Amino acid sequence: MAGIFGFINKSKKYNSEQISEGLKVAATQGFDNPAKSFLSKEKSVGIGFAAPYFNSSWPQTSKNGAYVFQLFGEIFLPDSSLLSEKNFENGFLYPFLKSGKDFLLKLDGAFIFSLYDKNNDEMILCNDPFGNFSLHYYFEQDLFIFSSQIHAITKTLQKKAFDEQGLNEFVGLGYNLNNRTYYKDIKRLQAAEIVKASQTKLSSSKYYIPNYTYNNETQKSIIIIKDAISSSIKKRIENHNSIGAAITGGFDSRVTWGIIDHLNCTKKVKAFTHGLEDSRDISIARKISSKLKLNHKTLIFDKDFIKTLPSIWEKFTFMTEGLVPITAAHACRSWEFSKRNYKLLLDSHGGALYRRQFMKVAEKRINSSLPLPDQFVHFIKSPLLNSGLLKEHFQYSTLVMIKKSLDQYFESTNHIENIADKIDYFYINQISANRYSYAGNAQMNWVLLAHPFLNLQAFNAVQKLSPQHRRNQSIYRYIVNETSKQLKSFYLENMGMPAPYHGFTFFRYFPMVYELVLQNSLKKVNEIAYHKFSLRKFVTDYDLFFRVNFKEIKEILLRENSVFFDIVEKKELENLVKKAGDNHSYKLSSWANLITLKLFFDVFHK
Questions:
Q1: Which candidate, 312, 347, 285, places its Cα nearest to that of 545?
Q2: Which CATH class is domain 218-354+437-501?
Q3: Does residue 230 have a pLDDT over 80?
Q4: Would you kindly state where each structural domain of the chain is located, as residue ranges?
Q5: Where would a tag sit more exposed on the chain, N or C end, judged by fewer CB atoms within 10 A?
Q6: Coil, strand, or helix at residue 472?
Q7: Closest CA to 329 of 342, 343, 340, 319
Q8: Which backbone phi and psi does 48 adopt, to 5 degrees?
């Protein structure tokens, strides 16, 4: 598994060489990734790195021998140069030691790093402002250990006791909040967090906290956003010679390719689309690629492809540690495909910051005069809590615990006044950082990750705009208009439906209304046809994916696992599986969290 790992061990309970070897084995498990590591002469400090191909120069030791630095991901310095072993000391180390948090705010990129200070016998861990990658740590007197993989720590130390609140969050939400994990005493490095650990002390601080303060300079803020994202994409293109970028029917990738076109770099970046053959994404992407004369490759999810998915479910669960639903497992095939064509993938993840995707409809049902956590939980809780499968005592404790967790989280956001801003920040600071970052770690086993939309300069500017300006696509429409006007002539994909570029905010609902009218008319004539009828052409179809592989899903769900069946009613599950097997119109996509949870226990708690 791609990632970093390390420790400070002054304890007599643990053998440093065994810790070092254990972390290295966990880091390379399942992949042929080379693992490099540093072990001090006293064998009390170790730092390691595992990744398939990119910058093998880490770890780096400063010339005076006082510091050992380890990077995962990439960092662009204030002068826009890419951090490397050549500029490591003057460009990064000494500015960081001198200015600390102020220096970190000037960086760009998706990264985590560790820095060992020999003089103070202190380990420093740091995450980028958006938490693009996951990193975990454990601390007790005389021992500090960290790893990109939670299970590298539990396996090395033989500690697998569940944290009650963490397990409830994991089952009830599908991910953990704040710095909690599902294991007792193992914490997660948060977005924009610095953790310092010595033999006797552990401290934590944030170097960035958002400040949503609207101003009347809307156009100025939008221009800053456009320039910041453009600069971020340009830096990647200038510093890498093998680049790909996804192209879909969506708005995010259109902005990315608009900027690439504006930079006259369409020959330097390969276009990639995956999905079902008849999906809107594939159709629109092909038309745009033809217009821009892109080197465009597609990975089609045909029936043979779909049948291969069960063979990667356990591996995907292992890589993402159960925190990303297996509905995303097809990404492994896409990353494998990408690796054969380029080394870095420009991903449009983070677009939700600029166009308000998360809960923008549900938000209208929130009563501002009532406590937010009590209402919020009903919109984000896992379908498992409505399935009737969880044992009654566990279901009750899970609801209590996740409400408690949300109370704790929203107390930390009291400085954010607007509910819409709180929701947006929850998405990027919790869901993205505490869930999708595991997919980021997994992707790095095949291809280098780049998230130019997760740019601090652009994020600071978007906080000056009201939620309404973020909701109405005005930021994206401005960027496309300024970079590649020809992209305005193509339809956008919206929930599997076509939507016109002009008037998208309003007219995108028309196809849905039309579909609903047809469905209601059909329901009166033929109930079976009604359930099958749809005008939508999604890029993926999880009902189809699960139905084709129903035999494998049945076997996964019903095979014995005492830990899983401590919280799930086995008889109820057996009845549900039988019901779904007999009724082919049953929506199996609702099982994503259930299957993922079972695979988690099968992989890590047999």
A1: 312
A2: alpha beta
A3: yes
A4: 3-206, 218-354+437-501
A5: C
A6: coil
A7: 319
A8: -140, 165
Half-sphere exposure of 416 (CA within 13 A, CB side): 23
- What pLDDT, on the 0 to 100 scale, is given for residue 434? 87
CB 189, CB 112: distance < 8 Å: yes
> Which of 238-242, 271-275, 518-522, 586-590 bottoms out in mean pLDDT, i.e. has the lowest?
518-522
Three-class SS of residue 539?
coil
The predicted pLDDT at position 70 comes to: 92
Please give the Cα distance from 282 to 512 (Å, whole number).
20
CA 368 vs CA 122, 331, 404, 406, 462: distances in Å? 45, 39, 19, 16, 23
Asked if 282 and 538 count as a contact pair (C-beta separation under 8 A), the reply is no
DSSP secondary-structure letter at 406?
Answer: H
* Average pLDDT, rounded, for the chain: 91
Burial class (CB in 10 A: 0-12, 13-18, 19+), 415: exposed
Place of tokens 């006044």: 417
To which residue do tokens 């009291």 refer? 414
Q: How do residues 88-137 score in pLDDT, each as one tens digit?
A: 999 999 999 999 999 999 999 999 999 999 999 999 999 999 999 999 99
H-type alpha helices, 445-532: 456-462, 467-471, 474-483, 504-507, 510-523, 527-532
The alpha carbon of residue 558 and the mean position of all alpha carbons in its chain are separated, in whole angstroms, by 29
We find that the CATH architecture of domain 3-206 is: 4-Layer Sandwich (3.60)
Q: Is 208:456 a contact under the CB 8 Å cutoff?
A: yes
- The pLDDT > 70 percentage for the chain reads 97
Burial category of 583 from C-beta neighbours within 10 Å (exposed 0-12, middle 13-18, buried 19 and up):
exposed
Q: 503 falls in which pLDDT band (50, 70, 90)?
A: confident
CB 303: neighbour CB atoms within 10 A?
A: 8
Q: What is the 3-state secondary structure (H, E, C) of 339-351?
A: HCCCCEEECCCCC
Report the candidate in 173, 192, 166, 347 with the shortest Cα–Cα distance to residue 272. Answer: 347
Helix axes 474-483, 251-262, angle to 10 degrees: 30
